Amino acid sequence: MIGTYRHSVRVQHPSGAPVPNGDGGFTDPWVDGDPPTWFCAIAEGTGEQERPAAGSTIAATTHLLRGHYRSDISVRSRIIVNDTRIFAVVGVTDPGLKGVELVLACVAVDETAVPAPPTPVPEGAFYQPQFLQEAQGWAQTYGEDG
């Protein structure tokens, strides 16, 4: 049993309301848990685990983290491993409801990925400039009757 929880990770929680990021979106400020360090065992998921999201199913690379029980970790928390990998907690289990051990289902998050800016819609069979739509008699107008 000695050395079972050999990974030292950092636990973080959202600090409050999202903050505007200046680009029209919001960011969640994070604060370290108390205590910030949690020793756990990290095992990769089977890759077959899926979770429902917005009416569809998303296959995700999941990891299972197992360590001593902590009451402050929830599905709103995140785990940082080696200051390089971020895991979002998507499930929290207390086996046997004894308050002895905690098992977290986590999804690896790539926070360095920035979505590409939207590209203009290309003109083609499905999109034509407004004047062509009006000339062909099928232009859509919004909020106007007549």
Salient structural properties:
single chain, 146 residues, mainly beta, Thrombin, subunit H, six-stranded antiparallel β-barrel, two-stranded antiparallel ribbon
CATH topology: Thrombin, subunit H
**Overall CATH architecture:** Beta Barrel
Which word captures the global form?
Answer: globular
Number of strands: 10
The largest beta-sheet arranges its strands as 1-4-7-10-9-8
Give the topology.
Layout (H helix, E strand, L loop, with lengths): L6 E8 L4 E2 L5 E2 L2 E15 L5 E4 L2 E4 L2 E7 L9 E4 L3 E9 L7 E9 L20 H7 L10
Antiparallel strand pairs: 1-4, 1-8, 2-3, 4-7, 5-6, 7-10, 8-9, 9-10
What does this entry look like structurally?
The chain is mainly beta and 146 residues long. The chain has one domain: Thrombin, subunit H (Beta Barrel), CATH 2.40.10. It is built from 1 helix and 10 strands, in the order ββββββββββα. The strands form 3 sheets. It has a 6-stranded antiparallel beta barrel. Strands 2-3 form a two-stranded antiparallel ribbon. A two-stranded antiparallel sheet has the order 5-6. The longest helix is centred in the C-terminal third of the chain and has 7 residues, at 130-136. The protein is globular.
